[in-house]
Amino acid sequence: MKAFRAFTQGMRQGLKAPGLLLTLYLFNLAAALPVALVFRNILKSGFGNSMAIERFIEGFDYAVYQDFLTQAGPAMGAFGSLVFWVLLGYVFVSTLIAGGVLTIVGGESEKFSLGTFFAGCGRYIGRFFRLFLIFAALLSVTMLVVGAILAAIFSAATQNATSEVTLVVWGLIVGSIAVTVLGLLIVALDFAKIATVRLDLRSMLKATGQSLAFIIRRLFSVVVAVILVLLTLAIGTVLYFWAASAIGMDSLWALAVVFVIQQLYVIFRIYLRVALYGSEWALHARLTPSPEQASAAPVSVAPSEA
Amino acid sequence: MDLVRRCVVLGVLLAIIPLCLHARQMMFKDPLSPRIANYSIAVTLNEADKTLAGKERLTWRNPSRDVITELQFHLYLNAFKNTESTFMRESGGTNRGFSIEKGGWGWIDVTSMKTADGEDLTGSMEFIHPDDDNDQDQTVMRVVLPRPVRPGGTIQLDIEFMAQLPSVFARTGYHQDFFMVGQWFPKIGVYEPAGMRTATQGRWNCHQFHSNTEFYADFGVYDVDITLPTKFVVGATGLLVSDIENGNGTKTQRYHAEDVHDFAWTASPHYVVADDRWKHVAIRVLMQPQRTHQITRYIESVKHALAYFEEHVGRYPYPIITIVDPAHGAMGAGGMEYPTLITAGAFWGIGPELKLAELVTIHEFGHEYWYGLVANNEFEEAWLDEGINSYYETRIMDETYGDQRSVIDLEGFHAGDLDFSRSAYVTMGNPKVSPIATPAWKFKAGGYGTLTYQKTATVLATLERLIGRPAMDSAMKTYFERWKFNHPTAADFKAVFNEIVPQYHGDRFGESLDWFFTQLIEGTEVCDYELTSIRSERIEGIAGVVNDNGGKTTKTRSSEHEANAPYRSRVLVSRLGEVQLPVTVVVGFEGGETVVEAWDGKDRWKEFIYERPEKVVRAAVDPDRALVVDMNLLNNSKTADPESFPIQKHFIKMLFWIQNALQSVALGG
């Protein structure tokens, strides 16, 4: 039950650092708000004083929606590009601030301070940037290879299909495999960062190799821990949609309430991200003791244990 | 003969007579159509080679006062013979989103043609290409007759042919053991005497098969014997009148159809057959086994269509409609119409939130009227069938499954059929690329599909809102009754409207509706009305120097007067497009009162001025969206105080989704 203990430890760890959650939330909001404001301006200039927008107070109007897309087409195209680049930039920024997050998550001190956070960011910024590049390359190559293999499997399996059900089933199978491989690589990146911070590794290639080896050796524990976090996310998501649809967005008050719920949901997701780091940290610490821990009390864990 | 034997003989006769009648089953007591081109065909399917071996007896009557010295035939399958056919040159091997499979060519050879008295015409057959100079195209054939066909006379020809079906492409062909056999036999063209349609002198109307074109043929009676392995389930135009096991692993099914102008059939060993009935019409669905849970969607939608057409257009005369669900991988055969047989298209797992199965069924059934019964020339005036039919499709879909949500209704995102038609038109890259009234093969710069289908549906929806549903239905009923089992033209369609609409509206729309059709069917210009501005100012009286009793006085305004002064409000509406249509303008005042204005929409702009205690707070041109063809709904209205709530709502939604997207990609960081 190492995975479950790691999960609960991670969840507790996430709760212990509200300052960290607030900082990450502000990062998120600071990145999202300007993009959303651009969208708001496109809406305002697209509709102007038109009464057509009233069709969207309580519902949806496809004709008006299409006309808006037609009229605001160039602006929406630019907006799409903006979203893409902001998302890409955020991946990069997330890499750079991961050092701060892990310093807090793995630190002994229960007190969060911005100084500790940014010190952590600064300390690992170079290493995590290299790690980012290594994993970007690894991810690209893996997905190309896996994608080609899966495409060949899909093609062979569905070539003489007499029913689209075959396509759907095989689509789900290869899709699930692709998502699993992608997910494992993302988790491997987490473990590489954790190993770097915990063991103060300097070689990011070594960190990558260790994390991949760790994932392969401890696959069950890792997967269970991640699934537990994903299940928690799923429960939270269902609750969010239930609450949002129950309240609706048909009045200013309802809008305000839903806005608060939405922001709480975003904080919840940030919390789960921190909790995932915490779970992974706990798992890594339990299954890969640091040299100091190893010399003090060697730990031996059978691969089948989870 | 003793009594027992007499009784036996009588019994046998009583048993045989219905069978004989059945074998010569007549659909209709009296012919409903001129029955010019009549076919008796025996065809054998070779399942392994995907070939057809056919013997056809054509009985053709000369409907004109002309002496006919040659006949012309369509050989549609030759469109798929090679890359140099006109069809392939125009389409590049792609049709309706599907590409022809490598090696999946199709063709037809007429191996023998003789008159009924045995005179061989095979040597006088030659390919012609009346539409272009492509001498590689073999989709039209001419035969010079040794003896002409006299006016009103009849000729019988015995034709033998061999056809290779293509891998499913452009409505016809095979996929594995699924066969959709359309446009498969040598089919005589239409001889148009002077005065018929646009003919000024007698002529054959027999176009080559083009990428965008469909078909045109004369009505007649079809008796078709289909021989194929016994494992196959068959569906075909008309009624099954006999089904005989041949004892060699094959069976022969005979189908009989009257007063139709084409014959298609399908075969697959996997069909699940579902039978139902609507009034006098037997409904037969040939369903793929994996989609049997969607049979009711086909049946219910075709019942809606049958009822709707009967109420709003006219009676469906045939006793059967067969709906074919194409096999997986054979969707190129889907969404097609033949007399009494349509091909639809469903997909496993697609729920009722997306009503594509219903849409395609209703559309294809509508063609039983607009193509099947009212048989315009689809080559030359495709909008008369595709466009009118798309208009009825939007009506039936939206009225049956809900306005603005009939096609898709999923988690708050919803759209109706007319919404989609209009959007397809107004979002075209160049909506002026061609008039609707363009022969189908002459849309060289594109736009055939959208202009022929969606723009026509949008135009007719606009016409309906202009003249009212009663006048529209009356005109369409008249058009149907007058032109069923015949070949109308656009002029005939317009003539009916010019006759019927004045009965409802007098001269409200002028002497005729030609101005409407000229602009929107024959023209390329677009319609766009705009509510340009709203301005309200106090009528504060004059201020400044005025002449007074021979002198000059300087007047000033009092603040009290200013506070109580009425408003002079100006509402300016403009016509941005070239199309001129009468339109309504609604003006709303403070306090909620509204004024409705009518504008003939002809000038470039019109200003409405009001002097009232309340100022104008909002105004809209065409508030009820009667002008479905209007290119931009956003500029149709204005309000003095813009509503910010929807903007805030969507801003908050967008913020939330971006935050979530960021949080998702942060996993990779």
Describe the structure.
- The complex is a heterodimer of chains A (306) and B (669).
- Chain A has one domain.
- In chain A, 83% of the residues lie in helices and 0% in strands.
- Chain A has ten helices and no strands.
- Chain A has helices at residues 2-16, 18-47, 62-71, 73-106, 114-158, 164-199, 204-217, 219-247, 252-287, 291-296.
- In chain A, helix 4 (73-106) crosses helix 9.
- Chain A is globular.
- The model of chain A is unreliable at 297-306 (pLDDT under 50).
- A seven-stranded mixed sheet of chain B has the order 6-9-2-1-15-18-17, with no helix packed on it. In chain B, strands 20-21-22-24-23 form a five-stranded mixed sheet, covered by helices on one side. In chain B, strands 7-8-3-12 form a four-stranded antiparallel sheet, with no helix packed on it.
- With 669 residues, chain B is of the alpha+beta class.
- In chain B, helix 4 crosses helix 5 (386-401), helix 5 (386-401) crosses helix 7 and helix 8 crosses helix 9 (490-505).
- Chain B folds into three domains: 22-269, Immunoglobulin-like; 284-292 and 305-524, Orthogonal Bundle (Neutral Protease, domain 2), CATH 1.10.390; 529-640, Sandwich (Immunoglobulin-like), CATH 2.60.40.
- Classes of the chains: A mainly alpha (306), B alpha+beta (669).
- At the A-B interface, helix 2, helix 3, helix 4, helix 6 and helix 9 of A face strand 26, helix 6, strand 35 and helix 12 of B.
Helical proportion of chain A?
Answer: over 70%
Domains of chain A, number: 1
| Residue share in β-strands of chain B | 25-35%
Helical proportion of chain B, percent range: 10-25%
Described by strand count, sense and barrel closure, the largest sheet of chain B is: 7 strands, mixed
Which architecture of the largest domain in chain B does the CATH hierarchy give at level 2? Sandwich
- Rg of chain A computed from alpha carbons, rounded to a whole number of angstroms: 23 Å
The secondary structure category of chain B is: alpha+beta
Low-confidence stretches of chain A: 297-306
Q: Report the mean per-residue pLDDT of chain B as an integer.
A: 94
